[in-house]
Structure formats: C-alpha cells, structure tokens
Design brief:
CATH superfamily of one domain: YVTN repeat-like/Quinoprotein amine dehydrogenase
CATH class of one domain: Mainly Beta
Order of helices and strands: HEEEEEEEEEEEEEEEEEEEEEEEEEEEE
Structural class: mainly beta
Strand order of the largest sheet: 1-28-27-26
CATH topology of one domain: Methylamine Dehydrogenase, Chain H
Radius of gyration: 21 Å
CATH architecture of one domain: 7 Propeller
Shape: globular
Helix content: under 10%
Strand content: over 45%
Number of helices: 1
C-alpha cells in the first residue's frame, strides 16, 4: 500500500512539472520563427548585438545584410549592396559592424546605429571568416580562393597591418592566447599560427575525415572541435596536439558551438539536422538528440549572452527564408 501511495505521489509530481531526478534533455527547444519574405537563397554567418538584442545575418545569395530584432522577434532592416556577404562581426564598444564579402574581397565597416558605410578594406581575393581579438584590437580575416592567408586589420587605426600566409584558403578558425587554429579543408589540415611572429608553426593532418570546415573551442578544457562534412566531429587536445575523440554526426556540418554553461555542443548540418552532444568528460562525448530542420539549413549561431541558438533557414522553392530561435534545455547527463 505504501508503495502504491509513493508511486501515485511521484506520478502527480511529474505531471505537475516538478523534478523527479530524471530529466529528459533534447538539447534545444524551438521557441520562435521569424520570416524573411524578401530574402532569396541561402545564408552565411551571423553576429549578435547582445545589449541591443539585434541579430545580423549574412544573406549571401541575396547580397544583403539582414537585421533582426530578437526582442520583438521581427525583421528590422535589409541592407543591400554587399557582393556575397560571408561573415559579420559586431563590436559593441565602437557600435560598428564588419562585413566580409566573397565576390569583391572586401571588409566593409558600418555604423551600428545608422548602418551607413564608414570605410572598406580591400584584399587580394575573397574574404570569408572573421575573428576579433579584443585585447589587441585586431580583426583577423580569412582571405583567398587561389591562395590562402589570414589578413589583419588594426581597427583602432583603421588600417591593414599584415597577414599570415597559409598553404591554401582558410575556412573557420579560432583564437586562443597567442595561437590561431585554422581549418584548411583543401589540404585536409589544421594549421596552427603564432600570432606574435604571424607565421604557421605547426600543421595537423585531419585523418578521420575530409572537408574540415566548422570549428569551435572549449578554452577551459583546452579542446578544439572540428566538423567534417562527410559526418564526423573530431576533438583535439590542444596541450598534446592530438585527436582524442571522433564521433559520427549528420552530414554537411557548417556550424559548431560549445555551450560552456551546460557542457553541450550544438552542430548545425546542411543535411537537415541540429546534432546536440553532451561533453561527459573533456575526452568523452554522448549524443543527446538529432533535431530535424530543413535541408540546406547549416548556418547557425549560439549567443551565450542571450542564451539562445539561432538557425538560418534558406529560401527554397515555395518555402520562405526564416530565422528559427531555439532555447537550450537543461538536463541530467
């Protein structure tokens, strides 16, 4: 009789929403969808203004930069005139936007209030990925199509101050202290650059799979996450410079983000899924869920300051382009 009573109380608590020691964690929950009715084609990378709750989206096929209000959950502006926008960075201290474009090899600087062009920097070939070094006020720019380099812009003095030569053109890269880790998919390697000498000091072959494009970093545990388009997530130990884990993921990975608060990894894949993994230990990773999305929806952004995950869904046929907003979910590993 006591056992029956206990089970009744447990069932009642569960239905009422009280924790019972077992919490199912699907990783992400879709909370909002924002339609961009005039955007044609697909997207590249995004950036966020956390304080102003604005999202900046590179609509590469539409040649526009889309501005979205994440408070009202609506489109604010569509800024035309960009020759295949690939990446955007927002800097709150200067209220400036930096937009990298592929067709004309430029980084264009916009006023974050008026959206007017302040300045542009011309590079030899296509500009793609951007990373900002807050301590040094330097903006690093992935450059190249027939060659590869990381361009360097001094944003305080508004000038190009150098470059880091690579073996081939770069894809995503990350900064950690005085080092930069660069995905170079054409040579199927990660190139490690010293930021003081501005030279490549090591090259790591990616043996587990080809087409290493997206990258993320767990600085606390010194782990580097690399996604390969055939469907692999590879984890490197930055201290030993060795791959210590490799797990299967959905194909066409285009975005990887590490959620330090929850020890979770979010991977947006063009195959049509968001893969969510739990970091059980720094060397062990467990799949939490595989969330169905839309084929071609590989562009994403995790915004820790707003605690949201954003997925950009391309326009395709009769389906309109849209921004999907997900809330990370807490759970027990």
């Amino acid at each position: 009789m006591k056992k029956i009573a206990f089970l009744f109380v447990l069932s009642t608590l569960t239905m009422a929403g009280f924790p019972t020691g077992k919490t199912k964690n699907s990783g992400l929950k879709l909370t909002d969808t924002i339609t961009l009715p005039n955007v044609k084609g697909g997207f590249d990378l995004m950036a966020a203004d956390v304080k102003g709750k604005r999202l900046f989206v590179s609509a590469q096929d539409n040649h526009t930069l889309e501005v979205v209000d994440l408070n009202a959950m609506k489109q604010l502006k569509s800024l035309p005139g960009f020759e295949e926008p690939k990446w955007v960075v927002y800097r709150p201290e200067s209220n400036r936007l930096y937009v990298a474009t592929g067709l004309d090899g430029k980084v264009t600087v916009l006023d974050g209030r008026t959206y007017q062009t302040i300045k542009s920097f011309q590079f030899r070939e296509a500009c793609n990925n951007l990373r900002f070094d807050v301590g040094k006020n330097l903006l690093y720019v992935g450059v190249g199509k027939t060659y590869g380099a990381i361009g360097i812009i001094d944003v305080q003095h508004d000038k190009i101050v150098g470059e880091i030569a690579l073996s081939k053109f770069p894809k995503q890269f990350e900064l950690d202290g005085n080092k930069m880790y660069v995905n170079v998919p054409e040579s199927n390697t990660v190139e490690v650059a010293d930021l003081q000498s501005r030279k490549v000091i090591a090259t790591w072959p990616v043996k587990e799979a080809k087409d290493n494009v997206p990258m993320a970093i767990d600085r606390a545990h010194q782990r580097l996450f690399i996604g390969c388009e055939p469907g692999k997530l590879i984890v490197y130990d930055l201290k030993t410079e060795k791959a210590i884990a490799s797990v299967d993921i959905s194909k066409e990975a285009d975005g990887i983000y590490y959620d330090q608060k929850r020890s979770q990894i979010y991977i947006s894949c063009g195959e049509g899924f968001i893969d969510v993994f739990s970091q059980v230990t720094p060397d062990s990773y467990k799949s939490i869920s595989k969330i169905p999305t839309v084929k071609g929806a590989g562009t994403s952004l995790f915004i820790p300051g707003l605690d949201v995950f954003i997925l950009a869904v391309p326009q395709n046929g009769q389906n309109k382009a849209e921004i999907r907003v997900y809330k990370p979910m807490n759970g027990i590993k």
